[in-house]
Amino acid sequence: MTDHAPIGAGDDLPGKATSASRTTLSHIMTAGDTNLLGTVHGGVIMKLVDDAAGAVAGRHSGGPAVTASMDEMAFLSPVRVGDLVHVHAQVNWTGRTSMEIGVRVMAERWNESTPAQQVGSAYLVFAAVDADGKPRTVPPVLPDSERNERRFKEAQIRRTHRLARRRAIKELRALEPDAS
């Protein structure tokens, strides 16, 4: 596949295939994970999502990476005590110092042989940082399948929307006398 990262992205770092840093984290949900309704608290799922995405970002970038934003966290169905949750994450897109990580959350009953069902998804942006917390370059991601090419292109659309939203909000706030 071809490298679709922006010009200058990766500063001559060799590209890495999408599959090179893909990971899955699994966790069994317990009573300590529940909310007032008796289902697993959304924040617990979000922490697992951030953990898996962070592992992928660190693996892809070859060092520390921090969460810059979380987009489109979707909870599709409740997770219950006793569910075995699998959080699958991979790099969808890379810029010069940032990466979009796509995450899919699956759940299955720990004591049944039924297939896991998707219960959530999210997109996170991570920034690679050096020891001083300053941005550092990341290798370009090389989509290694048609599906990953599609994910790469979708990530570019989300990035365009994030930047346009940020710009529009900044412009609107600039119109206010004491905007904050």
Could you characterize the architecture of this molecule?
A hairpin with a 7-residue loop joins β5 and β6. The strands form two sheets. A five-stranded antiparallel beta sheet has the order 2-4-5-6-3. The protein has a two-stranded parallel ribbon with strand order 1-7. By secondary structure, the protein is α+β, with helices and mostly antiparallel strands. The N and C termini lie far apart (44 Å). The chain contains two helices and seven strands, in the order ββαβββββα. The protein is globular and about 50 Å long. It has a single domain, classed as Hotdog Thioesterase (Thiol Ester Dehydrase, Chain A). Helix content is 27%, strand content 32%.
What's the SSE pattern?
EEHEEEEEH
Number of domains: 1
CA gyration radius, whole angstroms: 18 Å
Main sheet makeup: 5 strands, antiparallel
Global structural class: alpha+beta
Mean pLDDT: 92
Shape: globular
Give the N-to-C terminal Cα separation. 44 Å
Low-confidence runs: 1-8
Task: Going across the biggest sheet, name each strand in turn.
Answer: 2-4-5-6-3
Contiguous helical run count: 2
Features:
180 residues; alpha+beta; Thiol Ester Dehydrase, Chain A; 5-stranded antiparallel beta sheet; two-stranded parallel ribbon; 32% strand; disordered N terminus
